Amino acid sequence: MFYIALIHYPVYDKNHNIIGTAITSLDIHDIARVCKTYAVKKFFVITPFESQKLLCEKIINHWTDGYGAQYNPSRKEAFESVSVVNDLETALKEIKAAEGKEPLKIVTAARSFDKSISCQELGKIISTGEKPAILLFGTGWGLEESFIKDSDIILKPISGTNSYNHLSARSAVAIILDRLLGKDS
What we know:
The model has no long low-confidence stretch (mean pLDDT 94). The longest helix is centred in the N-terminal third of the chain and has 15 residues, at 50-64. The protein has helices spanning 25-37, 50-64, 67-71, 73-79, 88-99, 119-127, 145-149, 169-181; strands spanning 2-7, 11-12, 18-19, 42-46, 82-85, 104-107, 133-138, 153-154. Helices cover 43% and strands 17% of the residues. The chain has a 6-stranded parallel sheet, with helices on both faces. A two-stranded antiparallel sheet has the order 2-3. The protein is an alpha/beta fold. The chain has one domain: SPOUT methyltransferase, trefoil knot domain (Alpha/beta knot), CATH 3.40.1280. Strand 6, helix 6 (119-127) and strand 7 (133-138) form a beta-alpha-beta unit.
């Protein structure tokens, strides 16, 4: 009962203006594969822009129905859980319809907020299976403030060994999913 959303709008640029970001093939490929590895039920790509939705659908179709599906069946398997939607509300309705319950909205950010919790604390919450959960990742320079305010849980930022903290979305997804759902090796 775990879901991921990669949000391309509304997000911030480096000057704190609200913008929409471009979908990248690498994000779709890598996040879909990580989601499959950790049994995420669905990976939502969120953008209201028609040209971006068409690009994303073309990439998905290549790997699920086109030549890519024959060439690399394991990639097909990963891409089958990718869904392109206009906004978070659409994703939330889809999850509620599938699960019968409103999902917990969990946001990620590269900066700290009051009442942020660790991956370990979140892991305990989601392991109960009481509610489905959707983990929201931003693109650009982060999610617009309304996502933070409307969330049920804010996850602490990933901390490396120094102060640099501007990971790609696909790297952040991989790290967080492993911390939340991974098995000790």
